[in-house]
Each structure stands twice: as structure tokens, then as C-alpha cells.
Specification:
The complex is a heterodimer of chains A (493) and B (180). With 493 residues, chain A is mainly α. Chain A has one domain (4-488). Chain A has helices spanning 4-19, 26-47, 75-98, 105-124, 128-146, 152-183, 188-198, 201-219, 228-234, 237-264, 268-290, 295-316, 319-350, 366-380, 386-400, 404-429, 445-463, 465-481, 485-488; strands at residues 56-62, 65-73. In chain A, strand 1 (56-62) and strand 2 (65-73) form a beta hairpin. In chain A, helix 1 runs antiparallel to helix 2 (26-47). The radius of gyration of chain A is 21 Å and the shape is globular. Chain B has 180 residues and is mostly helical. Classes of the chains: A mainly alpha (493), B mainly alpha (180). Chains A and B meet through helix 1, strand 2, helix 4, helix 5 and helix 6 of A and helix 6 and helix 7 of B.
């Protein structure tokens, strides 16, 4: 029953603050990790067979009685559920040690699980208004999580994030209202069918513009990116990993692509807009990252750049482009989460995020240094790691689509990425060990377990990429490649 | 004509709520804007939306705002900004011009609603939009947990250690140090 993906984290989130009264650390740690492990295993074992014959619309039941809740599970939503569960599990494992000194661990896990419930609800939604609502669940939880440390910077970043996110939500809601007025419904099938029969290209263009601004703000696409470099570095490290690794992809990229490709249908004009925004994001993010001294801020700008690759791949709409975009989305979830978790380990051990003050940390933090090197090389697209294959697929897809200039620019963007990640590695881990860090110790056990797990995944996915593509990515790419016929197939549900 | 007046009142008081620096007056402006919106809802036969707008937004939330302001307010007189008094009406004017030039034509292109999902309020809420209720529970719950998490007692604000904002880079306690 795929409703469990939403209801289990929701119920656990409601229990944790109560259980936290009896056990401040052990029970919250255990239950949050058990929940995420369950969701991960459930996605692999139980949900995977359901998409064997394409997508399903599953009705939810409550104690045997049918509810009017219909959830859409297809290759694309399952791929996102799997990615969410995998990264969230690594984050909860990491949080066991990292969140010790923040206090209120039960409340932290409760908010984290609510954010996960919101993201799961969003990817299983079969209508536009459900997408909006679950996007808000994840967003409200994320505002509090960004401000969880309650310092001046955290609160300021959270407020800025809240304000811009509210603007994004207003655009999305306005677009949904116009579509409802047009088609008389909000379910994917009704909207896709209604728009096709009405032939109202001008209004669809207007709604696409609103969605582009709304979901573009959530995804931090250039020029809607200004909130991200404040919000992501200010949050506690596991939350930075969740935001950069997952939330911008789920509430931004997933929602945008589901609507544009499966409900509206991709038009040449939209392809051009998405490709231009993608390339702009790649360069603005990469060049801004080059000039950063704060390690987490550098990673945040890098997220803007990498989201550009994802949108570029998906936006061109060819089967290979979609495959490359989705693969890069998955890879970025792995290595950017890993990099943020490593940045958190460094910050916790040294008390600084300033790259100038680091240096030689590889001697005292070998695990953090090694896993960080794997992530940096992956994100820069060095073979045979996972980031190389996804960028290669996107670039080949661009060449095949006769967008050679964009392909050259994408390669150049990757060179700049390699440049600033080498700077990061050099300044943080290599060179002479700063005297102040001689007594610094490696990250605690569970933090290291989490980062090693993600680093291993980067290597394994890179080496076994044909298997990953065949088992997880191709079903998702097929769904996006089918366009509006997917939504049409669900009319009447 | 009545709709137009209500809309002008709604936008004017919304802008006033942003313009005014005095929090109490700002909260009251927001409540008045909300009343205009509620009357609009009633006028357009969205009775339930009107009731919720009046009772929750204009009523309950305003009471909460005013209580919070009364509990935290200092006696210092707030000096209202003059630049905002020019910028916001100008912004409003530009929006109005865009609205008149573009929106009417745009709305004219939207055909009449086709087979709207309809029914009584209870039918729509409980039977047709059940999944939305789960989402609403999630949003309310997230709000409650946010308040619990952000107003938790007994911790020092690390940002206060460095008023220059440099705390993010340097002011963190290394491992072994504690925020408590």
C-alpha cells in the first residue's frame, strides 16, 4: 500500500515529540532511522513490482474502508521515492551524532519526517492541488529546520527563504486557479484532456510562465536563486544536505517536469526557455561558487549550477536528455548530500566554515577527506564516477539534438566545477596542517558511517551505471518521454 | 461597481499593512484588508470561504498578532518611513496599469468553466478532496512543531556572539563545545 510512504512518516512525526519526553536521544534516533530504513526497503521490495506494467493509481484504505485518496505510482514517482528514502536514511544516520549539541532531537526528527512525508506526498500526488499542498507541508517544515540553530544568520536566512517561497507558492496557486477555471478540474487527466480539447495556447503559455517562476524559485533556477545561498548554508548540515540534495529537486524539478512534460506537454518554446535557464544556472552558480570562502556557501552555489544540468537535460525533452537529466538528479542527490555532510563534520570539528582557516585536514580527518574527494571528483565529472556518466549523457543528448553550442557550454561549466572543487580540496584537506587543528579528531562513528555509505554509492553507481539505468532510471525516463499520454491514461480516476 | 470598490479597499489596506512600520497599526490594516476580502467572498457566493476569512484571518489571527505585539512592545515611538510612501504607491500604480492593459484581455480568452468538480461544501471537503485533508493536517502539524522547535527553552543564541554576522564562519563551537 503506497499510502504508507506518506502516513508512516506523518504518524512517526506525531509520536516523536511525545516519546521525546521519556527518552531524549535513544528513542528518537532509533525510531527516525527505523522509519527511513523501512521506507527505503519498502520502495525497493514492495513498490518496485507495482510499476512492472507502467503506472498505477492506487486507492487508499483506512481500516478496510476505501478512502477517496488516489495515489499515482509510476516509474518517475518511484524513482523519486527511492532517491528521497536513500538520501534521507543517510541523513538520519548522520544526525545521530551531529544533532547532539542542538538539543530538542525529537522535535528535529519530527520536522524532518514531516518534510519527508510532504515530499513523498508530492511525488505520489495525482492532481495539481495535491502537489501544491504537499509542497507546502515540506516547505513549512523546512523553514523551521533552516532556523533550527536559532542563531541570527539562521533566522535571517529562514525568513528570506520563507518570503521568497511564499511568492513561489502564490505563483503556483494562481496558475492552478486559472487551470481550474479553464478545465473544471485539477487532476492530471482532466487537465491534460481539457487543455487538448480547448486549444488555448495563450493561456497555457501564461500558466507555464507562472509555474516556471513558482517551481523555478523552489528549484533555485537562475534568476530565481537568490534565497538558496543564504538558506542552505545556514541550516544544520543534515538539513543543508536534505535541502540541496532533495527538496529543491522534489518541489522544484520533479513538480515542474511532471506538469510540463506529462500534463501540459513540452513545446519548442518551453524547451528553449528551460535550456537557456539551465545554462544560465550552470554558469552563474559555478562562477559564484569560485569566489566563495565559506565552504557551505560554495556548495550552495554549486547546487544552483548542478540543478542547471538537470533542467538542461530534462528540458530538451529527448529520451537521452531525459535519462541524463534524471541520472544527474540522482547523482547530485548523492554527492551534494555527501559534500554538505562533510562540510558539517569539518565545521563541527574545527568550529569554522572558512576555507582560508582550514588546510591539511586530511591528516586528522582521513575519512572525511577521502569521502569528500570522491564526492568532489564525482560532481566535477571525473570518470568513472557517477557524475561523469550523467554529464556525458546530457552532453551527448545536446549534440544529438543539434544544440552543439549548449553542449560546449555544458562542458565548460564542468571544467569550472572541477576548478572550484580542486580549490576546495586543496584549501581544506591538503597542504600544511594548521597548528590550531592538531588536536582535531575525525567525525564521530555514525557521521562517518553515513558519509562512507554515500561515497561508496557514488563509486558503485559510477561502476554499475548500466544496472542503475536499466532498473531505476529507464522506467522513470519512459514515463516522462511518453508526454501527456501518461496523464490521459488516468482520465476518470 | 461594488466589487471594484471592495478590490480597491483590499489592495489599499494590504499595501498599508506593508507600508506602516508600527506593528499594531499594520496588523489592524491587515485585518481590515481581510474583511474586504471576506465581503468579496460573500458577494461571489463563496459563503464558506467568507466565513473562514472573517473568523480565522480577520478574527483569530488578528487577535494572536495583537496579543503578541502587546506582550513584546516597547514604548519607543515608531518613525514611519517616507520613501516607502512614494515607492509602494508607484509600484501599485505600475501594477494597476499592467492589470488594465493585460489582465482583462487575458481573462477574456479564458472560456467558461467546463464540468467543474462541484457539490456541497461537506461533499467537496470530505469526499472529493480527502487527500487534501491529509496535506492540511501535515501543514498544521508542521506549524505546531515549528513553534515547539524554535521556541524551545534553555539555549544560547550563537548568533549573538558575533554581531557582525561573522558567527557563521567563525563563531561555532567546535565539537565537545555545547550550545546549552
Amino acid at each position: 500500500m503506497i499510502f504508507l510512504f506518506i502516513i508512516v512518516p506523518l504518524v512517526m512525526a506525531s509520536l516523536l515529540p511525545l516519546l521525546g519526553k521519556f527518552s531524549k536521544r535513544f528513542l528518537p534516533d532509533l525510531l527516525a532511522n527505523a522509519t527511513m530504513l523501512f521506507l527505503l526497503v519498502y520502495a525497493v521490495i514492495s513498490a518496485k513490482p507495482l510499476i512492472a506494467n507502467g503506472g498505477v493509481i492506487q486507492q487508499a484504505f483506512w481500516f478496510g474502508a476505501p478512502l477517496n485518496i488516489r495515489l499515482l505510482l509510476d516509474g518517475f514517482s518511484l524513482f523519486m521515492l527511492f532517491t528521497i528514502s536513500l538520501v534521507s536514511f543517510a541523513v538520519t544516520v548522520y544526525s545521530i551524532n551531529y544533532m547532539e549539541h542542538y538539543g530538542a532531537k525529537a522535535n528535529y526528527y519530527a520536522l524532518l519526517l514531516l518534510m519527508i512525508a510532504g515530499m513523498n506526498g508530492l511525488v505520489l500526488a495525482s492532481d495539481l492541488f495535491n502537489i501544491y499542498l504537499f509542497l507546502e507541508v515540506a516547505a513549512v517544515a523546512s523553514y523551521a529546520l533552516v532556523a533550527f540553530g536559532r542563531g541570527h544568520d539562521e533566522l535571517e536566512a529562514s525568513f528570506k527563504y520563507l518570503m521568497l517561497s511564499a511568492v513561489a507558492s502564490a505563483f503556483i496557486l494562481l496558475s492552478i486557479a486559472v487551470i481550474f477555471a479553464l478545465t473544471g478540474g485539477v487532476s492530471f487527466g482532466t487537465v491534460a484532456h481539457g487543455l487538448e480539447t480547448l486549444n488555448v495556447r495563450f493561456v497555457v503559455g501564461f500558466c507555464s510562465g507562472l509555474f516556471l517562476m513558482g517551481f523555478g524559485l523552489k528549484a533555485a533556477l537562475v534568476p530565481f536563486h537568490s534565497w538558496l545561498p543564504d538558506a542552505h548554508p545556514s541550516a544544520p548540515a543534515p538539513i543543508s544536505a536534505m535541502l540541496s540534495g532533495l527538496l529543491i529537486k522534489v518541489s522544484g524539478v520533479y513538480a515542474m517536469m511532471r506538469v510540463f512534460l506529462n500534463v501540459f506537454g513540452l513545446t519548442p518554446a518551453l524547451t528553449t526557455v528551460l535550456a537557456v535557464l539551465g545554462i544560465a544556472s550552470i554558469f552563474v552558480g559555478a562562477l559564484a561558487a569560485l569566489g566563495q570562502n565559506d565552504i557551505k556557501r560554495m556548495l550552495a552555489y554549486s547546487s544552483i549550477s548542478q540543478i542547471g544540468y538537470v533542467v538542461l537535460g530534462l528540458g530538451i525533452g529527448t529520451p537521452l536528455g531525459i535519462l541524463g537529466g534524471l541520472f544527474h538528479l540522482f547523482n547530485h542527490a548523492l554527492f551534494k548530500s555527501l559534500l554538505f555532510l562533510n562540510a558539517g563534520a569539518i565545521e563541527q570539528s574545527t568550529g569554522t566554515r572558512s576555507l582560508d582557516k582550514m588546510g591539511g585536514l586530511a591528516r586528522v580527518m582521513p575519512v572525511t577527506a577521502a569521502t569528500s574527494a570522491v564526492a568532489s571528483l564525482s560532481i566535477a565529472g571525473v570518470p568513472p564516477l557517477n557524475g561523469f556518466w550523467s554529464k556525458l549523457l546530457i552532453i551527448i543528448a545536446l549534440v544529438q539534438a543539434k544544440m552543439v553550442l549548449l553542449a560546449v557550454l555544458a562542458v565548460l561549466g564542468s571544467v569550472v566545477t572541477l576548478w572550484y572543487y580542486l580549490v576546495l580540496q586543496h584549501q581544506a584537506f591538503f597542504g600544511k596542517l594548521n597548528e590550531a587543528w592538531k588536536s582535531v579528531k575525525e567525525a564521530p562513528f555514525w557521521m562517518s558511517v553515513s558519509t562512507v555509505l554515500l561515497a561508496l554509492l557514488c563509486i558503485v553507481v559510477g561502476l554499475a551505471f548500466p544496472f542503475v539505468i536499466h532498473s531505476w532510471l529507464q522506467p522513470a525516463a519512459d514515463i516522462l518521454g511518453k508526454g501527456v499520454s501518461v496523464a490521459m491514461g488516468f482520465i476518470g480516476f | 461597481m461594488l466589487h471594484l470598490l471592495l478590490l480597491i479597499g483590499l489592495v489599499a489596506f494590504s499595501i498599508l499593512a506593508i507600508l506602516i512600520r508600527d506593528l499594531l497599526k499594520s496588523a489592524i490594516s491587515l485585518a481590515v484588508a481581510s474583511v474586504f476580502l471576506a465581503v468579496l467572498f460573500f458577494e461571489m457566493n463563496a459563503v464558506y470561504a467568507g466565513v473562514f476569512e472573517v473568523s480565522v484571518v480577520a478574527g483569530l489571527i488578528t487577535v494572536l498578532f495583537i496579543t503578541a505585539i502587546a506582550l513584546t512592545r516597547s514604548d519607543v515611538d515608531v518613525v514611519e518611513s517616507r520613501s516607502h510612501l512614494i515607492v509602494f504607491p508607484l509600484f501599485f500604480l505600475v501594477l494597476a496599469v499592467i492589470d488594465i492593459l493585460v489582465m482583462k484581455r487575458l481573462l477574456g480568452r479564458i472560456p467558461a468553466m467546463v464540468n467543474p468538480e462541484s457539490g456541497t461544501f461537506a461533499e467537496v471537503l470530505w469526499n472529493q478532496r480527502t487527500f487534501d485533508l491529509v496535506g492540511q493536517i501535515g501543514v498544521i502539524f508542521a506549524g505546531v512543531l515549528s513553534v515547539l522547535a524554535l521556541f524551545r527553552p534553555g539555549e544560547k543564541d550563537p548568533g549573538h556572539e558575533s554581531p557582525t554576522g561573522d558567527a557563521a564562519l567563525t563563531g561555532r563551537q567546535p565539537r565537545g563545545g555545547s550550545h546549552e
